């Protein structure tokens, strides 16, 4: 009898010490989230590059309502653990304003062609992984950086997407980025839409279309068209 009681007690303690994630996995939402993250793991193994046209709507509601609309093309590329992304802005609010910004070898760069100025920030490398946001990142990589909540599925442009709400685990990131909501196609490992909340009165809506997966990228994708007259600012 005593041995039996000890076995029951041991089993009870073992169950009590199970990871919280395993206990909650029984809920439909947690099970769906784990399914989506697993799909992203599979997609990431075959992900090399993405090209997509974008529209970024940056909105401020207070103190003065304002909105900026950027349009252009974005490129993502992964080679092993190395990751690069570049957004080529063609226009802002309907006017031609050529700019290129992104992460190049762990360094953030912004090239303003009209001003012929290059801004370089090496302090940005700790935020590099947060730029992937559903473009080639595995479910494991996302779970390492974000607390993730599954919000259901939704069809965008005829594609069934899974909606995930993500809050950064790093408190320094949360100071500037409260949360991110993404509409991801887990089979291809790409986002069709993102909403970035920077605070109670500021957010950005990112929409991606004409998405191409694992096709050769142009040489200009990660090239900045600087010259001898380009002014460089290092932050």
Give the CATH H-level superfamily.
Answer: Lipoprotein localisation LolA/LolB/LppX
Task: Give the spatial strand order of the biggest sheet.
Answer: 7-8-9-10-11-1-2-3-4-5-6-12
Uncertain parts: 1-25
Number of separate strands: 12
What is the string of SSEs from the N terminus onward?
Answer: HHHEEEEEEHEEHEEEE
Number of domains: 1
Tell me the distance between the termini.
71 Å
Strand content: over 45%
**Largest sheet data:** 12 strands, mixed
Which architecture name does CATH use?
A: Clam
CATH topology: outer membrane lipoprotein receptor (LolB), chain A
Quickly give the structural class.
alpha+beta
Form type:
globular
- What gyration radius follows from the Cα positions, in whole Å? 21 Å
**Helix-residue proportion:** 10-25%
């Amino acid at each position: 009898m005593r041995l039996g009681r000890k076995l029951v007690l041991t089993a009870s303690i073992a169950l009590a010490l199970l990871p919280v994630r395993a206990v909650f996995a029984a809920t439909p939402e947690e099970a769906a989230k784990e399914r989506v993250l697993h799909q992203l793991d599979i997609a990431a193994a075959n992900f090399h590059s993405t090209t997509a046209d974008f529209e970024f709507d940056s909105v401020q509601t207070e103190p003065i309502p304002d909105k900026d609309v950027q349009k252009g093309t974005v490129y993502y590329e992964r080679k092993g653990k190395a990751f690069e992304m570049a957004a080529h802005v063609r226009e802002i609010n309907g006017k031609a304003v050529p700019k290129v910004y992104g992460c190049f070898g762990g360094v953030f760069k912004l090239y303003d062609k009209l001003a012929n100025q290059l801004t370089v920030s090496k302090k940005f490398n700790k935020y590099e992984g947060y730029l992937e946001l559903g473009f080639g990142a595995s479910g494991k990589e996302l779970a390492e950086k974000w607390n993730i909540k599954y919000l259901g599925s939704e069809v965008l442009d005829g594609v069934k997407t899974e909606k995930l709400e993500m809050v950064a685990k790093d408190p320094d990131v949360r100071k500037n980025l409260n949360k991110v909501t993404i509409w991801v196609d887990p089979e291809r490992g790409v986002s069709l839409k993102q909403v970035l909340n920077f605070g109670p009165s500021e957010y950005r809506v990112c929409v991606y279309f004409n998405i191409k997966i694992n096709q050769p990228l142009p040489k200009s994708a990660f090239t900045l068209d600087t010259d001898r007259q380009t002014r460089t600012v290092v932050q």
